[in-house]
Amino acid sequence: MRLRRGATGVTHRSRPVSRAGPRGDESHTRRVPFPFPPERDRDLYRDAAAMAVGIAIVGASFGALATAAGLPWWIPVAMSVLTFAATSQFAMLAVVTAGGGIVAGLVAGVLVHLRHIPYGLAVGDLYWDKWWTRLLGTHMLIDQSTAFALAAGKDRRRAKAAFWITSVIMFIAWNTGTVVGVLAGAYIADPDALGLDAAFPALLLALVLPSLKDRDTLLAVIAGSAIAVATAPFLPTGLPVLLALVGLLAAWPRGGKKKEAGA
Amino acid sequence: MTMAAVLALAVGVYLVRFAGPAVRGRIKVSERTETMMKRGAMVVLAALVVTGAFVVDGGFAGWALPAGVLVGGVLAWRRAPILVVVIAAAGTTALLRLAGIA
């Protein structure tokens, strides 16, 4: 074995071999320095990893908050694994710890999650292949995986890679963070003091920005955002961003028969 | 909160996630519908950015938060890598708060 191209490049004895060799056969020659992360999607891993640190800290604050509210450790941990939806988990936790009751907590948790319906409409086809990718992909549908997949544009392979890479990294980060928060409790830093509440909108903004070159999308986004901000003080969390879909009317395609797109 | 409540939330959230693709599978998706659905998701994400930057608990979030998001946005516009965008946004907000600006 010989090292090539720095510390990451591991090369084995030369042997001609087809590219589609059996999985895990390590005796193959590799021109690529090291198979993981693959060169073509390395930027996706890097970007998702950048966000993962922030998500882990927010997850830790969730775990810490839940245990501080007197819940046994397995409740926040199970919630993070089974729900994997930060806003829903925080919403339900807030309502329940405020004495609002389980049912109100469930309603709040599901309400803030309804924005995933338009997400599923937009990127659902990326994982609608086999039964298990459907089951798993459905669980992996989050803000970040949707935004990264949409940012890939028309490149379908890239969009699929973006969806899975970001969601799996976020899943690991969110759940690791939750466990750490449960264990470390009071030692967890306040995510707001670290400015992490700015990191999430900034990430989404960076991913949305390129699509705004399209004039119709820009119009719809401006109208929708205005509606969301204007209604946010009056409506329960979760509804304003859905109401933003009305903004689609600002650039509704003329002519031809109407379609049932949008909400 | 009991395990039953945790499971109930998980099921509710899963069904919401399932709804989009399920509807998608039942309608014939024309190219224009596809465009509108993608645009719809963009609109929701953008609304999440704007409400996330300006609104906290139904009130104005204070200046530190939108300022950080704005710095991130400008950097993204200048094609900075996402890592830089995210760190700059969080750093700006954190520093402003440290300086006493809410």
Strand content of chain B: under 5%
If strands are numbered along the chain, what order do they take across the biggest sheet of chain A? 1-2
Q: What general outline of chain B do the C-alpha atoms trace? A: extended
Please trace the helix and strand order of chain B, writing H or E for each element. HHEEHH
- Give me the secondary-structure category of chain A: mainly alpha
Largest pleated sheet of chain A: 2 strands, antiparallel
Protein described:
The complex is a heterodimer of chains A (263) and B (102). Chain A has 263 residues and is an all-alpha fold. Helices cover 56% and strands 2% of the residues of chain A. Chain A is globular and about 55 Å long. With 102 residues, chain B is mainly alpha-helical. In chain B, strand 1 and strand 2 form a beta hairpin. Chain B contains 4 helices and 2 strands. Helices cover 77% and strands 4% of the residues of chain B. Classes of the chains: A mainly alpha (263), B mainly alpha (102). At the A-B interface, helix 1, helix 2, helix 3, helix 4 and helix 5 of A face helix 1, helix 2, strand 1, helix 3 and helix 4 of B.
Helices, strands, pairings?
The complex is a heterodimer of chains A (263) and B (102).
Chain A: E1 2-3, E2 10-11, H1 42-68, H2 74-82, H3 86-97, H4 102-111, H5 116-123, H6 131-139, H7 143-151, H8 156-184, H9 196-208, H10 215-231, H11 239-243
Antiparallel strand pairs in A: 1-2
Chain B: H1 3-26, H2 31-54, E1 55-56, E2 59-60, H3 64-77, H4 82-98
